[in-house]
Amino acid sequence: MATTAEDVRNIALSLPDSSEKPAWGMPTFRVGGGANGNSGQSAKTGKTGKIFAALADDDTSIGVKCPREDREELIAAEPEKFFIRPGHDDNYAWIRVRLAAVEDAAELRSILTDSWLQAAPKRLAAAHPELDRRGPRGPVTAE
């Protein structure tokens, strides 16, 4: 079963201190910045949080945070699922994910949670150890 833009929205917004804010003409999902009740903008700092996911304008893919050194391996292992836009993503720690290739909501949750952990303020991530599947030696590679 393919996942949808609505699945992305529901899962992304279920993560702690997450909010949705349009940027570049598409929905982006952010962490931090005091999302609770104020559209993702902190009344204290005026900051809107860090982007951890962005839906493509056609709702068929998402961009998520991914260390640049991991992208090549992910794309080689599952090119139908993971890709980058050459010339656009080259210098950023992001990867794109085709929603039609994501197996189910559990896999989508795992992808979004990993991106959230990379973008979340350290204190916020530490307050939610149940979300961190990486463990002391880095990311978990198998369930």
Provide structural commentary.
The protein is 28% helix and 21% strand. It has helices at 5-14, 68-77, 105-119, 122-126, and strands at residues 18-23, 26-31, 50-55, 61-65, 82-83, 94-98. The protein has a 6-stranded antiparallel β-sheet. It is globular.
User: How do the strands of the widest beta sheet line up side by side?
Assistant: 1-2-3-4-6-5
State the helicity in percent bands: 25-40%
Q: What's the main sheet like?
A: 6 strands, antiparallel
Low-confidence stretches: 35-45, 135-143
Main attributes of the structure:
globular; 143 residues; disordered C terminus
Layout of SSEs?
Layout: H1 5-14, E1 18-23, E2 26-31, E3 50-55, E4 61-65, H2 68-77, E5 82-83, E6 94-98, H3 105-119, H4 122-126
Antiparallel strand pairs: 1-2, 2-3, 3-4, 4-6, 5-6
Helix pairs in contact: 1-3
